[in-house]
Each structure stands twice: as C-alpha cells, then as structure tokens.
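Technical annex, item 7. During the second reporting period the consortium partners agreed on a shared format for inverse folding records so that results from different sites could be compared directly. Each record opens with the tokenized structure and is followed by the designed sequence. A conforming record, contributed by the partner at site C, is shown below for reference.
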C-alpha cells in the first residue's frame, strides 16, 4: 500500500504553494499517526522564497499574537532556522502547535499579498517546519527578566493559560499554573486527536514554558481544592482564569440518553486523553459500531468522525444543518475527512433518536433543512422543511454541536460576573474581570473559538496583569518606605 501522498509539486513558480506530503488516505485510517508530514528543508526554503517580503506586511495584521511573519520567513530563506524560531517565539510560545492547527487560511494567509493572484505563502507550514527543528533538539533556555517576586496563579493549562504563564514568566514574575486534569494542554491534549496534533509536540511546548520557570500543578481543580479568593489570600498577587469551554451542549431531542449516543467531549476524551485507541495497553473501553453518525459541522465534529473511522467504523456520516459553504470546520480537515471516505449530509438535522428494547440507539430521524434569513451570527438560518423526515440506521451517534464554559469557578466566586452565555464578563482588551486582580481570557471569556484567539486574549491579559503587578509593587514599596521613615522619626 502506498503510504505517502506527495501531490503534484511540478507547478513551480511564485503562484503555487509547495505541497506538503501526507499519509495516504487508505493507509492513514488504520493508524492514529500524524497525517500531515511537514516540509522537508528543501521544500521549506522553496516555499519561503515565494514570500514577497512586503514593506507593509498584511499577514502580520491577521495574526492575533503578532508574529513578525516576513522576518522569520526571510531567516528561513537564508537557512538560519534557529534564528527563525527565536523570531517566532518572541511572540508565540506554542509555534509547533499553531503551525499544525491554526486556521491560517482565515487569518494571516488570508491577507497574504500573493494570495490575490495565486496561492498564499504557506505561513503555518513554515512555522511548523522551524518549530519542529527545535522540538527535535534540546530546547534552549529562554531569556527571563530579573525576578520581580510577584506571584501569579493561572487556572487552566490550555493555550490561553499557557500563553499568560509564558509571557509573565518572561517578565520575571513567579507563575504557578493549576490544571484540573493529570496533564497540561487543555483541548490540545483532550480534544484534538493525535493524527492532527501529536501529544509529544504539545509536551515539548509545555516543557519549553516550564523552562521559563513556570510551575505546573496538575490534578488541581480550582473551585474544589481551593477558591480564587483563597489563592489571592495565600500570597498570589493576581489570578488568571483560563478554564475554557469544556461543557458539552446537547440537542434536547427524544432519545438523546440512549446507549450509543455520545457527546463529542466524552468520545474524544476517552480516545485522546484516556488513549482508548491503544486498548488494551490503556484500559479505557469505548464502543464504536459499524455505522456512525456525527451531528455538527465544526472541527470537533470532523475530529470525532475521523476518530470513529480509525476505531473501526465502516460508514461514518457527518450531518450538518447548514450547507457546505457555511461549515465552520477547517477546509483542509474537511477535505482530509472526505478523502478518508467520510460522507457529509448537508442541510439536515436530527429530530429524534430511536432505540431498541435494550435502550441501544438503532436509528435516527432526520429532517431536511433550507436556508432562510440570516440569524444573529450573520449566517443564514436553517429552517426545517415540513414532511421531509427520513430515517437512517445507526449503531453510534456523536453529538458535536458546541461547548459552553464549565460553571464551577463562577459558582463559588462571589462578585465574579458572568454573561447570559455563561462566559466571564471582562474587558475585551485586557481580560480584567469584575474582581480586582482577577483576569481572564480564552474560551471562558469569548465562548468557544480557536487556539490562536485564546492565545491572543491571553497575551493581552498578560500585558494588563504585568501593569497591575508593577503598580502593586510600587505601591507596596511606597508603604514600606513611609513606614520605615515613620519609625525612624519616632
Ligand atoms: P482549553 O483548551 O479548554 O483549556 C482549559 C483548561 O482549563 C483545560 O485543561 C481544563 O482542564 C482546565 N480547567 C477547567 N476548569 C478548571 C478548574 N476549575 N481548575 C483547574 N483547571 C481547570 N482550534 C483551532 O484553532 N484549530 C483547531 O483545529 C481546533 N480543533 C479543535 C478540535 C476540538 C475537538 C476541540 C474541542 C476544539 C478545537 N479547537 C480548535 C478550539 C480550541 O482548541 C480552543 O478554542 C482552545 O483550546 C481554547 O483554549 P483555552 O485555553 O481557552 O481552553
């Protein structure tokens, strides 16, 4: 069996991006090994040479953490790869992750000047190339400012929390991250599957952040072990809450509690975090039948469908209530799923799940939808077509229609204001919450979004926390000086 798909790289020249190799679709559905294989050195340099090094680079404006894209690409052109990764890391502490999962096509690459006439420069693939070189070699000890002796507690070790921790550690603050799970990374470890984002890559980037002096305490559920108030009273000068949006949303239709109907959260956590795909080496059971239907159209739905296929399903169908044009998942991953044999049923929604006498789901009733007027999200609203119900036989259903914040911390922190969507109320530029010294960012503030937007809001919060800490420190010094002065007069 052909293991690698190389693509047609003969159309060279500025307008065509260098294609990245990936595992062949037949081969990859039998493995959780990474699908996209990354650029070789020669491919990376060839792709970097396509960059126009614009005087007024638009791509940088599309990057929520402000990576100096043309500057790092120029270093790749000059084959100065370790300088290139240092340049990226000035702004982004998780580049090997972002190079794999960021939706560059709707951000930096969307604004690339070259993209007006041909294909944009593959910024994400170049970022991954330089980041992977560093992952393969021992991580350099990064620069840290002199200690300020100010302490920060970060709650949640997802992309938002890790970014805040790295930024504040670089400024010389003492940072401790409290993570509820037994491993750091948030969705990067419990949601996104190994074949898109290998966990050794996440671990390497978490290790880099630890090298900055950040302490990571796992198995620490804030809100149960201790409260935010207790953190502030026990010597932490500020708290950042980056607890994400880990609560699954359900459809609320009949039959949703039948056996064989999973939330995508449970399904992905069992497979990715608890390693059900390596059963019996890891003792996590999961039952995946032959016919699987996934409800939803985001990255979570596509990841669930591709995991189901790799776990032995024969037919996997994604049911999405809008049309292909509105699907929110990354285009590249939708194409990968289709290459693997996953089918999509657009403009359809479930109305009920039907079970057998043992309480096991065995079919699903779907209704056709048509697109009406735009709703509050600006997208055309799906409207059911009367009398269009059909029934589909299934063994397993995975519901992937969205996630909301876990309410634990909000419920035990008096004065911490929330919105009616359950997110934390905060200043959108600084992440400052309704409580003094308490900041937030990532999905818990914005609602479910992307890795890079979580990192961007984390970065903004880190700037505000730094300012807050420095002013608190000055205030403390003034009090100490005036006390000493007062005592010497007496
Ligand atoms: P999270 O990543 O959710 O991290 C929050 C952390 O806080 C978790 O580790 C959690 O255990 C911890 N926590 C929660 N409560 C507590 C508590 N009380 N005490 C201590 N710790 C706590 N985005 C993309 O850009 N590209 C993609 O391809 C993509 N694919 C995705 C696929 C899936 C399956 C999912 C679920 C999401 C995907 N996303 C993707 C979205 C992206 O992963 C999230 O937007 C991002 O991870 C949000 O980061 P965060 O730090 O805010 O939260």
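Designed sequence (site C submission):
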């Amino acid at each position: 069996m052909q293991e690698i798909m190389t693509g047609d790289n003969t159309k060279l020249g500025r307008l065509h991006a260098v294609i990245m190799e990936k595992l062949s679709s037949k081969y990859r559905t039998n493995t959780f090994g990474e699908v996209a294989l990354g650029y070789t050195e020669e491919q990376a340099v060839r792709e970097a040479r396509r960059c126009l090094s614009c005087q007024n680079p638009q791509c940088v404006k599309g990057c929520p953490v402000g990576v100096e894209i043309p500057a790092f690409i120029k270093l790749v052109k000059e084959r100065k790869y370790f300088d290139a990764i240092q340049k990226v890391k000035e702004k982004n502490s998780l580049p090997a992750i972002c190079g794999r999962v960021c939706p560059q096509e709707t951000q930096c690459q969307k604004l690339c000047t070259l993209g007006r006439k041909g294909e944009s420069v593959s910024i994400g693939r170049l970022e991954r190339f330089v980041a992977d070189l560093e992952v393969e070699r021992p991580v350099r000890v990064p620069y840290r400012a002199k200690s300020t002796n100010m302490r920060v507690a970060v709650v949640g070790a997802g992309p938002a929390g890790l970014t805040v921790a790295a930024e504040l550690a670089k400024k010389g603050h003492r940072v401790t991250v409290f993570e509820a799970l037994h491993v750091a990374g948030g969705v990067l470890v419990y949601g996104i599957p190994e074949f898109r984002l290998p966990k050794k890559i996440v671990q390497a980037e978490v290790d880099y952040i630890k090298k900055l002096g950040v302490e990571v305490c796992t198995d620490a559920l804030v809100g149960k072990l201790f409260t935010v108030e207790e953190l502030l009273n026990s010597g932490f000068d500020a708290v950042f809450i980056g607890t994400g949006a880990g609560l699954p949303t359900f459809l609320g239709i009949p039959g949703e509690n039948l056996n064989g109907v999973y939330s995508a959260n449970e399904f992905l956590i069992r497979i990715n975090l608890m390693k059900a795909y390596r059963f019996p080496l890891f003792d996590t059971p999961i039952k995946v039948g032959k016919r699987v239907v996934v409800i939803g159209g985001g990255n979570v739905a596509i990841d669930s469908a591709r995991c189901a296929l790799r776990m032995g399903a024969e037919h996997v169908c994604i049911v999405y209530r809008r049309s292909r044009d509105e699907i929110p998942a990354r285009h590249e991953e939708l194409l990968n799923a289709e290459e693997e044999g996953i089918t999509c049923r657009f403009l359809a929604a479930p109305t009920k799940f039907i079970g057998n006498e043992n309480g096991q789901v065995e079919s699903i009733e779907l209704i056709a939808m048509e697109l009406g007027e735009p709703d509050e999200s600006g997208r055309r609203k799906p409207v059911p077509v009367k009398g269009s119900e059909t029934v589909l036989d299934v063994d397993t259903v995975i519901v992937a229609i969205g996630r909301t914040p876990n309410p634990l911390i909000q419920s035990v922190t008096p004065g911490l204001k929330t919105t009616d969507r359950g997110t934390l109320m905060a200043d959108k530029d600084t992440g400052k919450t309704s409580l003094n010294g308490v900041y937030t960012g990532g999905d818990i503030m914005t609602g479910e979004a992307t890795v890079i937007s979580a990192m961007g809001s984390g970065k903004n919060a880190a700037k505000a926390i730094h300012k807050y800490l420095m002013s608190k420190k000055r205030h403390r010094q003034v009090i100490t000086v005036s006390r000493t002065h007062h005592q010497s007069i007496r």
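Residues 223 and 411 are 8 Å apart (CA to CA). The first strand starts at residue 4 and ends at 5. All partners now use this format for quarterly exchanges.
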